[in-house]
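User: Predict the complex.
Assistant: Input components as received:
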Amino acid sequence: MIEYRNLRVALLGAGSVGAQVASLLQKHGDELAQRSGAGLELVGVAVRDVDAPRTADIPRDLLTTDAEGLIVGADIVIELMGGLEPARSYILKALSSGADVITANKALLATHGPELFEAAEQVGAQLYYEAAVAAAIPIIRPLRDSLAGDRIKRIMGIVNGTTNFILDRMDTSGDSLESALATATELGYAEADPTADIEGYDAAQKAAILASLAFHTTVPIDRVYREGITKVTAAQVDAARAAGYVVKLLAIAERVTDRESGTEGVSARVYPALVPRSHPLAAVHGAKNAVFIEAEAAGDLMFYGAGAGGIETASAVLGDLVSAARRHVIGGPGVAESTHADLPVFPISSVTTRYQISLRVVDQPGVLAAIATLFSEHSVSIETVEQSVVGPDPVTGETEGAPGATLVIGTHEASEADLSATVLAIDASGVVSSVTSVLRVEGSE
Amino acid sequence: MIEYRNLRVALLGAGSVGAQVASLLQKHGDELAQRSGAGLELVGVAVRDVDAPRTADIPRDLLTTDAEGLIVGADIVIELMGGLEPARSYILKALSSGADVITANKALLATHGPELFEAAEQVGAQLYYEAAVAAAIPIIRPLRDSLAGDRIKRIMGIVNGTTNFILDRMDTSGDSLESALATATELGYAEADPTADIEGYDAAQKAAILASLAFHTTVPIDRVYREGITKVTAAQVDAARAAGYVVKLLAIAERVTDRESGTEGVSARVYPALVPRSHPLAAVHGAKNAVFIEAEAAGDLMFYGAGAGGIETASAVLGDLVSAARRHVIGGPGVAESTHADLPVFPISSVTTRYQISLRVVDQPGVLAAIATLFSEHSVSIETVEQSVVGPDPVTGETEGAPGATLVIGTHEASEADLSATVLAIDASGVVSSVTSVLRVEGSE
């Protein structure tokens, strides 16, 4: 029997993830000790109310409401409370006392990441957060370590399971957004208040974390452009399918060059986009997550798996726990957060993408020429035009005002600024009845 | 300008990967130094002939034939020569002098891994080998670190690009194996002597490495069961497609329980198998690689990307280089190879899988009953039977001997031993004209 040094592990929070961490730690303690080279002693679990009913099998005497007392003397603190405060204060307290900290708190990292990393670096402690993005899918370590010798060009992630479930459901069943959301709620894929998911806030936090890590640059959450899925219609999803696309909510982190200044910078953004059916991200169904990475040398990579769930997230937390324990055994300071590149973070207007725009027009001579002129005047180059003469609008299903036609225009890469100006000009021109859909196209065939 | 400590990097080999490593190291040296916290000085490149023509832009005065001299005094040695010797001796020499070693040499690791890891551990050095499996796809670090807190149940990898290209080509074009191999050779996906790829030797080496890592157990290459793709016919691929499957060469590492003794152990094996079209591995096309992992807590994960190529593999090597440099800066011993579980490695006869067996029979009463009895006598349980009466054999295309029928029998999980005995008994029974195809089925729908 090998005698290990014992490390004191404090757990803050006993929700769905915390309960699983406590349970797995007890169940596989010996195995984890062998892998870590250190015993992992769960010294306490801080909760709001020790008498609250809980499904997890946590020994009653480990529960405490005194989080601060628990942190003192812990070698490793696992923060799974969520929210900004008191999580932030607790983590700062733990780091300042030299403990390594493991967190799954994406909101906190996206908001106060630099402060926390700075605090860790000052005492040579380490902040681990594999569970904060895409739960069980290893993505933080691959970006920080495996791809450390490469240059990331772009990351496109399906990092929110709720919205992927909803969009996938709309795609496979033809459901409306409302109906797909109701199903997601019923099956437990959406929370009672789904705002953070469907408005893209959750995905934006993850985009900030991924962009910071990939580009060695601090990307604050308020610099992430964000559109949720609430405006996505069943008709758009149907039209996308017919055209060989699928609508996915993407978190994108991209190395971009500003067209005017030539400056290199970073764009982080979240929006529903058309993805070609042949792209690996198109095959990510249900509540699954996937992160697609385009790197200069490595080429295209994809990481796929469960993006949520108590036990799945606990897997990532325990992986971090083994890493933290190994570091304690080996000694030496943690790896500091790398922000050396310090690239400027560009607004959405600097980004160029392809677009697909659907217009409802009156079917009369000269309309296409007039529209093409408006695109050309705003430097947006048209790649494809499809016109369906007469009949209901393929996007809205509307048949009023016929005889009319629908034009679906695909553009080459154009800047957001130019595209917005084009759409405004078209709207104001009186040439079209309505602009029925504007969606970006991401990912090559 | 930050002054970094300088680390001396020696490169052994300047083939397609080595040349890219040298080139990227020169191109992105400053960036890599910032990420590593140390300058990375390429002090020399050992080659067989300094005057040989080479495409890489390596300064002439870095080239040397004196590998041993180069190793002396290097902080980090990158071995990209391939082959067992002298690569093994050079790596042992480097480790014994305290240098960290990075290698992409899967044959060497699968054959002499334990000796090399032992040598590293004795001096506290580290052996990095992210590039040895699936090139640019981060898989070693995710298994060793990210999933260190989880229990791996099974790994199924498409880890050989050549055979995946060939099987994908057969699937999409209906080509014969010979024709698809010819195309692969023409396009540079297969080597002049494709034996290592098509006979599964390359995949078997990777299976040994993955199994060792995932199960904390030394799995020697000679304990890996191996079948190549040379017996896969166009008719089998067509029949698979018709039945909703695709044929893939899989490297499988699995935690198994021996049915008789109840002992837990490991199985590592390589063979062409039927994979349901709905499985994520079925969508891995061309020469791409992917590793699918089933973990107890994390659930299903998949890692996808380029499994070969000079620059892609160089990405993994440089990731290891940054890790090695960070370790030199931080100090402390490397993470030792973990073989604590030391599980028994079971032969293929202990493995249970599902099977699909195609039989050519004379269409007369009682045949199915006779065959079903033979299955039952050998404890193999039938899940599905499909009979196509009269007409050409769907697998061989053969029409002679008609009127006949083809039976396609899908089994529940059965042991290799029982299945082999069943097939032998059927062959000997005189009830069937021929057993036209026996393929294992892997991966759930």
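The first helix of chain B runs from residue 16 to 27.
Let me know if you want any component modeled separately.
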